[in-house]
Amino acid sequence: MDILRKSDFCNNLDPISGPEVTISVSCNAAAQQLEQLEPSTGYSMTITSHQGDCNSVWATTAFTTTGGRGGDGPKDLTASQVTPRSPVLTWKPPSSKVSGYKLQYAIEGQAFQAQTDLRKHKLLRLRPGSKYLVRLQSDMGGVYTEAITTEFTTGDLRFPFPSDCSQELLNGVQESGLVEIFPLGQASVPVSVYCDMETDRGGWTVRAVAKEQLGAASASVCSDSMTYHNGRHFSTRDRHRSDIRFCAMFYRGGWWYRNCHEANLNGLYNTAHNQEVSGTL
User: pTM for the full model?
Assistant: First the structure.
């Protein structure tokens, strides 16, 4: 018997290519017990006979081993709240204590894996309009139980790979926040940006540019310039709260001013007075 090989794409989920193992058996043998295989793993097997320098035609089969402890696994894996980019996965935990869970999900030959010790998990940044297969196993101290599976399909978007926040607005996103965009299209590397969906009907891609000058800092200053502004309202010279109006107008920037600032990175560009950091980032 020759070449026992772990599947190149185990159970359509595990993209691990295992080594080839060759086993020699007696010419009178009609069966062979295979040992030390991994649970819940796909294998392909090829057998051929030898006589001198001649080999017979190869016969091939494939199989998948069962889980390590099928009775102790999670149950009722379900995908809910499915959006174009995210579902919430929930399941019922096993009756026995577990170390955690091994969660795998795959799309079109690409596989991903996550570890969690919770009873639900939210997947993020999925591909819109795509079908996903999910597999879940309990971790019993390094031994994984038999897997349970579920499938879901993410919703469609007008712009599945938005190039800026205006396209994300047309996708129906109305809340400001971090968004992943594709400036050069689907094939480009995604970039995380902040989308302002409130100012002037929304769709604004916010980009901040910080300027550093080597040698301009003082080693004696040890405060945290950014934390100083935590909890403050963002303001500009034409959109502000009364208690910080003076700061936004005088320093000519959009910032989370607080009497007035330790950091003012969005101040007027190329002036040391209006764009600066005091202390450390």
Answer: 0.49
